[in-house]
Amino acid sequence: MAEFDYDLFVIGAGSGGVRAARVSAAFGAKVAIAEEHKVGGTCVIRGCVPKKLLVYGAHFAEDLKDARKFGWKLDGKPDFDWATLRDNVLAEVDRINGAYTDTLENHDVEIFKERATIEGPNSVKLASGETRTAKHILVATGAWPHMPEFQGSEHAISSNEVFHLEKLPGRVLIAGAGYIANEFAGIFNKLGSKVTLVNRSDVILRQYDQSIRDRLLQISMTKGIDFCFNAEFEYIEKQEDGSFLVKVTGEEEKEVDLILIATGRRPKTEGLGLDAAGVALDDKGAIKVDEYSKTNVDSIYAVGDVTDRVQLTPVAIREGHAFAETVFNDNPSTVDYDCIPSAVFSHPPLAGVGMTEGEARNQLGSVKVYQSDFRAMKNVLAERNERALYKMITDADTDRIVGLHMIGPDAPEILQAAAVAVKAGLTKTDFDNVVALHPTMAEELVLLR
Ligand code: NDP
After folding, report:
1. How many other C-beta atoms are found inside a 10 Å radius of the C-beta of residue 410?
2. In 10 A of CB 449, how many CB atoms?
């Protein structure tokens, strides 16, 4: 009889957990996975995927307006129905949830649709009360929205609930100025809501290049999004008609219909039984792991947001894959965290890879910055006064590109391809040597002066 029920028990069927389970099973491991919500995790169920679909939905507001300049006759005011968009997006989420489940089942991964907690280094307890043993346990429980507590904070929602709204709110207040805040500010603004963004500091998207975030701030304000900076919540009060009175420091009381909190996500480790197994956490509650995603307990590993390394889906997927290679394919593998491209699907979107200008100046001393500040051809004809900005940062001594940042239509699509060149260590001259593909926005990258 086998010593353990499974070779691997994965807790959490999100991006990292599903990849680790599937690849480990493909290497011949006997695998089980437990998930208390839906298979797919944050990205698929209540994150990247439904968010991007809402971004597409919201963008039609601009497209329909611009279309008239391109000769289209759209009689009357276009009518938007939130319930149709919401239900179609949720149906797509269900479809992907099914596809993920099928993939696991096709690899003979046993799925427990219930919560699992750790009982010891090789033992897991299911919500049903049953215990399962495994040679290895992988924790991939992700992160959960951080909800600050203040008077009336129970009336606010997080990004978990925002995809299920009964109706489109007329007035929205968003707390935070990071990824989720800026993406949903763009979505609600385009769908016709009055949006106010409130942040504790006066910085949006702190980790991005300053010129790029300044451009987003300027465009967002032009679109009618209000910003309240250096403001903290004092209280939220629910009114009889279902709306809310919100007071933040330094501002008048404000009446809104929805309060969305987007002030970061914390590793989901509470109540997981990690202490029972002696797994060490850092001071933010994230599971501490080594370069192979192994915790201080030999049989327990962790990947993805629960380790708070880089909170991005493609990183969790790589960590899950490297875990499977290391543990079940005798191929010790680590993840390269250098030069990870990232994007914010705001209106317009922005994207970046490598060092910001500030970071490059601090680390390298001598840098050269090349910029293109232009209006996309389509925006010119549409009389949309919205300028794109591309910025390349090079090491002045070697000509090597150390950072590339852009805001404008399709910026994330363009940056993904350009990030290959930055990661490969190419120089500005390498870019200059490429003939422009005309007329495109991306050609600006090889014409930078
Ligand atoms: P972010 O970390 O992007 O931004 C957090 C915001 O909340 C910042 O403006 C920060 O202010 C503020 N903040 C942080 N802590 C507090 C606090 N205790 N009280 C009040 N304000 C606070 O978090 P999000 O919630 O927007 O997103 C969570 C994570 O999800 C991101 O880190 C990202 O990795 C991931 N994500 C990625 C997306 C993408 O790739 N496109 C899209 C959505 C999410 P300040 O900067 O002033 O300190």
Report:
1. 16
2. 6
Pairing outcome for strands 226-228 and 194-198 = parallel
Is the entire prediction scored with pTM above 0.85?
yes
- The residues that bridge with 136 in the sheet, in sequence order, are 8
* For ligand 1, mutation pick of 179, 309, 415 (most atoms within 8 Å of CB): 179
Which DSSP letter does residue 139 get?
A: E
Write out the two tokens for 188: 């609600």
For residue 51, give both structure tokens: 């968010």
- Hey, which of 52, 162, 265, 345 would you mutate to test ligand 1's pocket, going by the most ligand atoms within 8 Å of its Cβ? 265
Pairing verdict, β 143-145 and 265-267: antiparallel
User: What's the token pair of residue 418?
Assistant: 């350009």
CA of 180 to the centre of ligand 1 (A): 7
Which of 132, 46, 134, 33 minimizes the C-alpha distance to 90?
46
> How does pLDDT run across 395-445, given as a tens digit for each residue?
999 999 999 999 999 999 999 999 999 999 999 999 999 999 999 999 999
120-140: b (≥16 Cβ within 10 Å) or e = bbbbbbbeeeeebbbbbbbbb
Domains of the chain by range and CATH?
6-144+266-328 (3.50.50.60), 153-263 (3.50.50.60), 348-446 (3.30.390.30)
Q: Angle CA(197)–CA(202)–CA(206) in degrees, nearest 5?
A: 95
Classify residue 334 by burial, with Cβ atoms within 10 Å: 0-12, 13-18, 19+.
Answer: middle
Predicted pLDDT of residue 427 = 98
Known catalytic residues are 438
Query: What count of residues does the chain have?
Result: 449
- Which residues form the pocket of ligand 1, taking CB atoms under 6 Å from any ligand atom? 148, 176-181, 183, 199-201, 203, 206, 262-265, 311-312, 342-345
Which residue type does 43 have? C
Q: CA triplet 266, 171, 218: central angle to 5 degrees?
A: 75
Question: Strands 131-139 and 123-126, how do they pair?
Answer: antiparallel
Residue 349 has pLDDT above 90, yes or no: yes
Residue 1 has pLDDT above 90, yes or no: no
What percent of the chain has a predicted confidence (pLDDT) above 90? 98
State how far the Cα of 77 lies from the Cα of 277, in Å rounded to an integer.
61
Instruction: Give the integer Cα–Cα distance in Å for 392 and 369.
Output: 6
DSSP structural state of residue 296: S
Could you give the CA distance from residue 14 to residue 29 in angstroms, rounded to a whole number? 19
The pLDDT value given to residue 76:
85
425 CA to centre of ligand 1 in angstroms: 30
- Between the CA of 449 and the centroid of ligand 1 the distance, in Å, is 34
